[in-house]
Design goal:
Blueprint lengths: L11 H17 L7 H14 L6 H12 L2 H23 L1 H12 L5 H16 L2 H17 L5 H18 L4 H10 L3 H26 L18 H11 L4 H19 L4 H13 L2 H19 L2 H10 L5 H19 L2 H18 L4 H18 L4 H10 L11 H15 L19
Length: 438
C-alpha cells in the first residue's frame, strides 16, 4: 500500500454506514425507517473484522481508544448538559413565553418576518432546530390559516429561522461538533460564522417582507411571563462573554430551575425529572458520536483517512480550494445521512487535516462545516425538519423547497466568503491549553 495514497478499502465501514442509512430511506421512502444506530453498529462490526494482520483484541482496544478520545468525551458532556438545559427551560415555560412575547410586539403586516425572527431567536437560545420547529410549526399553520400567506411559505420560514440558530447557537450539536473537530473556540467560530450568514438573514427578511406585503395576521398572542425568557438570555450573554461552556450551560440549568421553583412550575422531582429527560433525549447523538469515534479511528489506522485526504486534496492548490473541498465533503455527507450533526462528525477530522495542510484558519473551517451542513439540512425534503413541518401542516415536504430562502442564501454567502477570503483576520492557532473554553 502506498502510504501517501492511503487505503481506499479502509473506508468500507463508512460506505456501509451511509449505504444502509441512505439505501433503506430510498427503498422505504422514509429516511428514518432504518435506525441510524443500527447502521453504525453494523459499520463498527465490519471495521473490526477488517485488517487481519491484527488481533481482534488489538482492534477492539483501538476502537475503544477512538470512541473515548478526549474530544469525543468533551463533546458528549456538552451534549448532555445542552439537553438538560433545553429540557428544563422548555418544561419551565421559556419557549411559550418567548413565542408569545414576540407575537405580542410584532405588527400584523410583519408577522411572517416576525415568525422568522422568533424562530431564529428560539433556535439560537435552545440550540435545536427540531425543538424550535415543534414549538413554532403550529403557530405557522395558524398564521397561514388567518392570512393569504401560503402554507409552504410559512413552514419554510419556520425551518429557515430554526436553521439560523442550529448553525450559530453555542449549545447546538452542530456548533459543538464543528468546534470540537476543528479545535477552535465557540465564541471565535460564532463571530466568523455570524459575519458570513448575517447578510443571508437580512436578505431573507427582505424577501419575506416583499412576498407578504399587505397581509394582516389574525393570530393573537397568549399571555407570557418575561421572567421565563431570562434563562435563554443568560445563556446567550454568558456564551458571548466567553465563559466556559460548562459554566454557561450549568448556570442556565440552575437559573431555569430557580425561576421554575419560584413560580411553582417545578417541584424537586419534576425539576430533576426534566434534567434527566433532557439528557436522555441526547442519548442517540451521544451513542452515535462515541461509535463514530471508534469507527473513524479504525479507518484512520487502516489508511482510510489518508486515502480520503489524498483524493480530496490532490487537485487543491490554495487555501480557497481547501475550503471548497471542506464544503463539498460536509455537503455530500449530509445529503447521504440527512443529518447535519452526523455529517460534521464524519467530515470534521478530514476537514481538520485539510485546513492544517493548507493554512486555513480553524475558525473558518469550523464555520464552513456548520454553514454548509445546515444549508443542505434545510433544503433536503427527507430531512427531519422538512418531514416534521410537513406532517404538522399536512403538505408535501417537496412543496417547501421553493421557499427555502435562508438555507440557499447561507450557502451562497458561504461561497462568497470563500471566494473573497472573508472575513479578513489574522490566522489564530488552536487553543490547545484550554480546549473547552467557549
Amino acid at each position: 500500500m502506498n502510504q501517501e495514497r492511503g487505503n481506499l478499502l479502509a473506508l468500507l465501514p463508512l460506505i456501509i454506514f451511509v449505504s444502509l442509512f441512505l439505501g433503506a430511506g430510498i427503498i422505504s421512502g422514509d429516511f428514518y425507517a432504518f435506525p441510524v444506530l443500527v447502521s453504525i453498529i453494523i459499520a463498527s462490526v465490519v471495521g473490526l473484522l477488517m485488517n487481519r494482520k491484527e488481533t481482534l483484541t488489538a482492534k477492539i482496544e483501538r476502537f475503544a481508544k477512538g470512541a473515548g478520545h478526549p474530544d469525543i468525551m468533551i463533546m458528549v458532556f456538552i451534549f448532555l448538559l445542552a439537553g438538560a438545559f433545553s429540557g428544563v427551560a422548555e418544561k419551565m415555560g421559556a419557549v411559550d413565553s418567548t413565542v408569545n412575547f414576540a407575537l405580542s410586539v410584532l405588527p400584523g403586516n410583519l408577522i411572517i418576518v416576525g415568525l422568522f425572527i422568533i424562530a431564529a431567536f428560539i433556535s439560537l437560545s435552545m440550540g435545536t432546530s427540531m425543538g424550535t420547529i415543534a414549538a413554532l410549526a403550529p403557530i405557522g399553520v395558524g398564521i397561514s390559516s388567518g392570512t393569504d400567506i401560503s402554507m409552504p411559505l410559512a413552514m419554510a420560514t419556520v425551518i429557515g429561522g430554526a436553521m439560523f440558530g442550529d448553525n450559530l447557537s453555542f449549545i447546538s450539536d452542530t456548533t459543538i461538533a464543528a468546534v470540537r473537530t476543528q479545535k477552535t473556540e465557540m465564541k471565535d467560530k460564532f463571530k466568523v460564522n455570524f459575519f458570513i450568514v448575517l447578510p443571508a438573514a437580512i436578505v431573507t427578511m427582505v424577501i419575506l417582507l416583499v412576498l407578504t406585503m399587505g397581509n394582516q395576521a389574525t393570530v393573537g398572542a397568549e399571555s407570557f411571563n418575561w421572567i421565563k425568557i431570562l434563562p435563554y438570555l443568560g445563556v446567550i450573554v454568558g456564551a458571548l462573554a466567553g465563559l466556559n461552556v460548562f459554566v454557561v450551560l450549568f448556570g442556565g440549568i440552575v437559573l431555569a430551575g430557580s425561576i421554575g421553583f419560584i413560580d411553582g412550575s417545578f417541584t424537586p422531582s419534576s425539576y430533576f425529572g426534566s434534567v434527566a429527560d433532557g439528557m436522555t433525549g441526547m442519548a442517540e447523538i451521544v451513542i452515535l458520536s462515541v461509535l463514530i469515534g471508534g469507527v473513524v479511528e479504525l479507518i484512520r489506522h487502516n489508511g482510510g483517512i489518508q486515502a480520503l485526504l489524498y483524493h480530496a486534496t490532490r487537485k487543491i492548490k490554495s487555501p480557497q480550494g481547501a475550503q471548497l473541498a471542506t464544503a463539498g465533503l460536509v455537503s455530500s455527507t449530509n445529503l447521504c445521512t440527512a443529518n447535519n450533526t452526523i455529517s460534521i462528525i464524519i467530515a470534521g477530522p478530514l476537514a481538520k487535516s485539510i485546513s492544517e495542510n493548507y493554512g486555513v484558519d480553524a475558525r473558518k473551517s469550523a464555520s464552513i462545516l456548520d454553514i454548509f451542513s445546515c444549508s443542505i439540512q434545510g433544503l433536503i425534503p427527507y430531512g427531519a425538519q422538512a418531514l416534521l413541518v410537513a406532517e404538522v401542516a399536512g403538505i408535501s415536504p417537496i412543496s417547501i423547497i421553493p421557499y427555502a430562502f435562508y438555507p440557499i442564501l447561507i450557502a451562497v454567502c458561504g461561497l462568497i466568503a470563500i471566494r473573497f477570503a472573508l472575513p479578513k483576520f489574522t490566522r489564530k492557532s488552536a487553543p490547545e491549553a484550554n480546549p473547552v473554553r467557549s
